[in-house]
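One such shown below:

_____
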Amino acid sequence: MAQAFISLPDLIREDYLSCKICFELYKNPKLLPCLHTYCQHCLELLVKRNYLKCPECRMEVNVKDGIANLKTNFFINNLLDLFETKKIKDFGCTICCSSQPVIARCLDCNDFLCQSCTQGHHCSRQTRNHKVVNLNEFLDGLYDEEVRLRQEIYCQDHQREPLRFFCKTCNSAICRDCRLLVHIQHEVGSMPDEVRKKRPEVKKMIEGLDSNIMNICKQQKVVKESIEKLKASGDSIKEHITDYVNKITAHLTEQKEAALERLATFQKEQMEEYLSVMHELRSQMDKAINTKKFSQEVMDVGKDYEIMYLEKTMRNQIQELQTFKPQQLETKIPLLDIDLNEILSKLPPLFVVFSEDSKTHDLDISEEDLYSNKQPKNAVSSNSATNAPLVTTQNPQPNNSCFNPRPLRKLFCTNTFDIDVDEENDYEPKVTGIAAFPGEGGILVVDSENNEIKRFSFNGDLRRSIELTDDDNITVCSVVICGNTLACSASCYLYFLSLGGNFQHKLKMRGGQDDDYKYPITSFESEYVAVSEGTLCSISLYNTKGECLDRVRPCGYEGGRFLFIAINSLENFIVADFTMQQIVIFERSGQIIYILNSSNSILTKPFSLCVDDSDNILVVSTNEVIAFSADGENGEVLLNANNGVTKPRLVCIDSHGRLVLLHDNTRISIYEFHTGSE
């Protein structure tokens, strides 16, 4: 995995120099051990009991000595100096302070010069050898590299002396005066010499991350294959169990239900294990990629003292990643064991058995094994204590090891706030969409009445308003975060903005009869934005460049109008059909998995929906919020009027698993999940 060269202009841009918490330019940037950088003030807000969790990778950091004692990211600080220098709008001569226009900049003095001072600069004995450059060329970035080379960091004890030496004894950068005073007896070398020695070693460590990333990719592939095999095997067994039981008369109905329940429980438990491993692998992948990117940036454009300053931190992070060992995946695949020899004489026992093999790709399961009356290869004996028969021909007794019910999840409201209504200025919001920023970034609220997207903190403070000003006739509808892009649907257009709200590009979507057509949207990780296409009963997938990747329609489905949409971790689509008053769950291939409606569940009139990190489906239905299992077969009411919730409208889940609910038209409540028997 070759790393492309990172240029200085690519780094000197606002989005790179903006904090991922407050989305403003860094102020006193502090570097965490995981190599993520945030403003000192933003980090102080995250501290709980001398610890904080990185908003991006969730690494826990001990900050008992205070945020101020974390390493300052001088690499970012120096880039900020260069960025802010070029951002000044009203230039004035810093020598004579006259009203003459500025035409040049001295790279040695860091002064802006008018015509007279430029000529005087060339004539003075002290400054005639200084490099004076054209102002426009300076602002265009033609001298960024040279300015970067001239940047110095000065000693805190001797503020006029740059840090040009490295003390090996103290492992710190020092100036000339420090070398002659405090460090005179220490082993000291020049900064360039020490960097030359360290650079090959650091580069080798960075290159070593390639194999680490490749190993994680392989592990992800193994887990995905296991999930696909588990799902395919389970679906096939469901079909054959149902067909088999239907051929046997009503006496086997009880066996059928028990077998399906046992299989569903097993699949759910296995799926949770797989998803847990997948989550761990994704986390390690993100850490490895971020570490490599940051380290490469430092090595490509970092100055010598910056490399030495960060070398130990990078080394510790890389060594930690390289020693990572994923959880050992133990795979169990369900197999069907049916005795057909005596089917006409008496009721046969019905077994679902589970093979155990740590290598999923070595399982030798043929179609003949699955559906014959022989014991399948790798199957565990039905007499095994850990694999007891699911259904017997006698009166079955509950097996506590197999039927441990999961405790009901409880919701606790952590905060509630109202979106302000300004009656004097006839301002009343109409919220049609909500979404959560990653980490502690807050909540996005779509106000279609006033054509704005507002970002609130979780405490209810309004942080920013974004207006789509290119066309007064559009009406904003829905919003979602896809990687580092904010996507929103407005009338028949899909807009792509930066996380700070800066316009990037837009495209016209299909399916709308007019400009007032509503398009709910969602995203799948950072890969694409999915658009629900109403009466077409289809979904279009766009990457953040605006390219259409695919169009998906559930096979053979004759519906009414697709509305809200969600996507789970297996890339299954969950869509509310507003006209048919049902929820359709289907794969990207178009294969329908399940249709959820009032005839087979407690669902009444589905509206907004989302999925949590366990792929449970959360639905706003009439005047309550319902949680369904990932397959849609089991459901329970989470919130209703008994919890003080009236007129629920919109629901979403943030990156910490908290539920965000809009109810009573302008009220937002945040809930956390807990488990318990009470």
User: Anything to note?
Assistant: Residues 191-246 form the longest helix (56 residues). Confidence is low (pLDDT under 50) at residues 1-5, 357-408.
